[in-house]
Amino acid sequence: MTGSVLEIWTAPAAAAPMVRRPAVAALPGSGLAGDRYALGGGTWAGYPAQEKQVTLIDADDVAEVARVAGVELSPGQTRRNVVTRGIDLPALVGRWFLVGDVLLFGTKRCPPCAHLERLTGMRLVKPLAPRGGINAAVFTGGTVAEGDAVRPVDDAEAARRGAPTGADRPVPRVVPLPT
User: Fold this and answer.
1) Angle 122-23-4 (CA atoms, 0-180°, nearest 5)?
2) Structure pTM?
3) Dmax (CA) of the chain
4) Phi/psi at 6 (5° precision)
5) Does the residue 173 lie in any domain?
6) Is residue 170 in a domain?
7) 3-class SS at 72?
8) What is the rounded CA–CA span in Å between residue 16 and residue 38?
């Protein structure tokens, strides 16, 4: 199962407009360079660090949300960082995966919140709930670029790339989806 990166989005501060970038540095333990969470801000900055570093969403899910909600919705309006296609993102929760050569760990599903509705003026929480993508933590740095492959890796490959193992291995958080 291999997918690809279609778009990359960052915002310099909480509630600031998202900016599309063709490539961006991924910073271990922080997120994407220039993004609100890597800069220590963001609406959810108080949440555990590994849960807010990078968000990923599938482009087909964004299109389905737009259809169900009856709105025009661009991937950047979802306020997720990396837009993918061809990979089952929820299946990456609790797993190591690569975006290009950058090693990430899927920490949890990323259901939307009312803050997104306030920023967009669109009723998105219900249709986006099962399609909100995932949160991931960055474990090895590098550049993430549009066109990069997205693929899961096993624990052995992740360890060879510097991932923590044993008791230090990250643990995902199960987030119940809103009904």
Assistant:
1) 75
2) 0.90
3) 47
4) -95, -40
5) no
6) no
7) coil
8) 14
Could you identify the residue written with the tokens 């993102």? 89
Q: Which of 168, 143, 145 is nearest to 155 (CA)?
A: 168
Contact 149, 100 (CB under 8 A): yes
In a domain, 141, yes or no: yes
Read off the tokens for 6.
């279609």
DSSP letter (8 states) at residue 93: B
H or E stretch covering 19: strand 19-20
Count: domains in the chain: 1
173 to 50, 109, 138, 152, 158: CA distances (angstroms): 10, 8, 16, 18, 20
What token pair was written down for 66? 């737009």
Q: Could you please report the per-residue DSSP string of 46-98? A: TS-GGGSSEEEEEHHHHHHHHHHHTS---GGGGT-SEEEESS-GGGGBTSEEE
Q: Has residue 153 been placed in a domain?
A: yes
Burial of 46: CB neighbours in 10 Å, binned 0-12, 13-18, 19+: exposed
Question: CA 102 to CA 137: how far, in whole Å?
Answer: 10
pLDDT digits (tens, 9 = 90+) for 12-37: 988 888 899 999 999 999 999 999 88
Beta-carbon contacts of 2 under 8 Å, excluding residues fewer than 6 positions away, are 86, 87, 149, 150, 151
Give pLDDT, residue 22. Answer: 98
CATH number at residue 113: 2.40.33.20
Residues paired with 137 in a beta bridge: 105
